[in-house]
RNA helicase
Amino acid sequence: REDYNITIKGGKIPVPLRSWKEANFAKEITDIIEAIGYKEPTPIQRQAIPIGMQNRDIIGVAETGSGKTLAFLIPLLSWIRTMPKIDNYSDDASDQGPYAVILAPTRELAQQIEEETNKFGVPLGIRTVVVVGGLSREEQGFRLRQGCEIVIATPGRLVDVLENRYLVLNQCTYVVMDEADRMIDMGFEGDVQRILDRMPVT
């Protein structure tokens, strides 16, 4: 960890990745990493990914441009690819909804996360819908009803979509809050709590 300038707190923390080859990912994910051209994991990726692969809660702190998005995406996508595809046209729509929500403080960041997610999600058949202000709520609602495994959203617009019943979070048990400190500073704490209250207790 000293070699990579990694500081940790907590118990039973797995050793950091030394290389992508050392990681125990599904071949499809390893192939995408190679195709995109990611050579070596960054420090946040080296430590956060092994923890995330154990489905443990984690708070990661790293500078902008340090690869945080991939650090939470790989464990998330590895888990989702083992789950059944979501079909929001099924008879029992009340049980449908995404498996995961990624929250971001701004539309721009949400769209950046969507772009990175789709690099992996599209080849893996994992569908993503971005739910942000400035885009048609009806169009977003239509895409949500078509079914998706991941929703990437700003807190205010996601609350709006939930209250208008375009979406339920009955099956959502995986939450990522990117730039959580900034979300709180921008006054989204109440919205975040309302979103979490809609999720099942695990």
Observations:
- The helical segments are 27-36, 43-52, 68-80, 107-124, 137-145, 155-163, 180-185, 189-197.
- The domain at 2-80 is CATH 3.40.50.300 (Rossmann fold).
